[in-house]
Every structure is written in structure tokens, then in C-alpha cells.
Recover the amino acids of this structure.
């Protein structure tokens, strides 16, 4: 029967870390990065969407606050 070989946890961690970073590097090579015009357009779209959704939530909040005050405070 073969003797059990003990592998230190540090060496297996190191091998796993190296493999992880190699995999990350290979995946990042597959990414299609946006150019400046696309980035600007997408950023503007996200900011405008956030402002619109925020305004909608704010208006519902104000409306519900007035309804609650109307029914609770006489």
C-alpha cells in the first residue's frame, strides 16, 4: 500500500491562485471593450434612466404622503 503523501495547504493554494489568474487573463482577452463613443452613449443612457426612475419613485412617494395626510389628519 502506498504511503499517504501530505501536500501542504499553501502549495495547493498557490497552484489554485496561479490557475485562477491565468483563467482570468484568458477570459479578459475575450472581452470586447467599448470605444469612447459607445461608453459615453451607454453612460448617458444609464444616468437618464436613473433620473427618470428616481423622479417616478419620488412622485409616487409625494402622492402617497399626501393621501396618508388627507386620511389620517382631519
Amino acid at each position: 500500500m502506498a504511503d499517504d503523501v501530505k501536500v501542504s495547504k499553501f502549495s495547493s493554494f498557490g497552484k489554485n491562485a496561479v490557475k485562477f489568474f491565468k483563467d482570468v487573463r484568458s477570459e479578459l482577452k475575450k472581452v470586447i471593450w467599448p470605444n469612447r463613443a459607445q461608453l459615453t452613449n451607454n453612460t448617458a443612457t444609464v444616468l437618464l434612466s436613473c433620473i427618470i426612475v428616481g423622479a417616478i419613485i419620488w412622485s409616487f412617494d409625494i402622492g402617497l404622503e399626501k393621501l396618508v395626510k388627507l386620511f389620517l389628519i382631519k
